[in-house]
Amino acid sequence: MKARIKITLKNGVLDPQGKAIQNALGSLGFTGIEEVRQGKYIEVDLAESDETAARDTVDRMCKNLLANMVIENYAFELVT
Amino acid sequence: MKARIKITLKNGVLDPQGKAIQNALGSLGFTGIEEVRQGKYIEVDLAESDETAARDTVDRMCKNLLANMVIENYAFELVT
Asked: What is the nearest CA distance from B46 to chain A, expressed in angstroms?
C-alpha cells in the first residue's frame, strides 16, 4: 500500500520559497500569478495491506516526523 | 483558478532525502516501510479563469522552471 502525503504551510505562515518561485515566474513572463506556496510531497510504500492500520501508521508518521505541526498541515491518500 | 502541482523524481534517480526519511522513520520504530520518495508540492493561484488556457500556462511553468525534466516528472490538477 502506498501513501501519498502532501505537507503544506499553514495559512499566514510566510513562504519565502514560494515568493521566490512567484518572482521567477514573473521574470519569465508569466502574468496573472496571484500567489505561490511551496510544500512537500512524500510517497511512502508500506508493507501493511490493511487500510485502517495503514491510515493510522501514516497519521503517526506525519505527526511525529514528516510535518511540523506548529506551522504545517498534512493530508494524505492511500492507494493500493 | 488554483493549480496543485506534484513534482517527483523519475524512477531510477537516487533520492537521498527519501532515504534519510526512511531511516529516520525506522529509528522511530516504524516497520514495514519499503520505500520513501520525496518530491515537491507547489500551489499556484492564477488569475486565469479559462481551464484550457490555465492548463497550458501551468504546463509551460512546469517545463520552464518548476520541474527539471531530466530527472523529474510533474503532474497537476486544476481546482476552481
From this structure: 5
The residues facing A76 across adjacent strands are A5
Model pTM score: 0.92
Q: Are B3 and B77 in contact (CB under 8 A)?
A: yes
Which three cell numbers, joined as nine digits, stand for A50?
A: 490493511
**Which chain A residues are Cβ-neighbours of B31 within 8 angstroms?**
47
- CA B46 to CA B61: how far, in whole Å? 12
* Dihedral class, residue A31 (left if φ above 0, else alpha if ψ from -120 to 50, else beta): beta
- Residue A61 Cα distances to A14, A66, B36, B60, angstroms: 25, 6, 12, 35
Asked if A63 has any chain B CB less than 8 Å from its own CB, the reply is no
Kindly identify which residue of chain B lies nearest to residue A39, measuring between CA atoms: B41
Q: What is the pLDDT of residues B22-53, one digit of tens each?
A: 999 999 999 999 999 999 999 999 999 999 99
Q: What is the pLDDT of residue A74?
A: 97
Domains of chain B: 2-79 (3.30.1280.10)
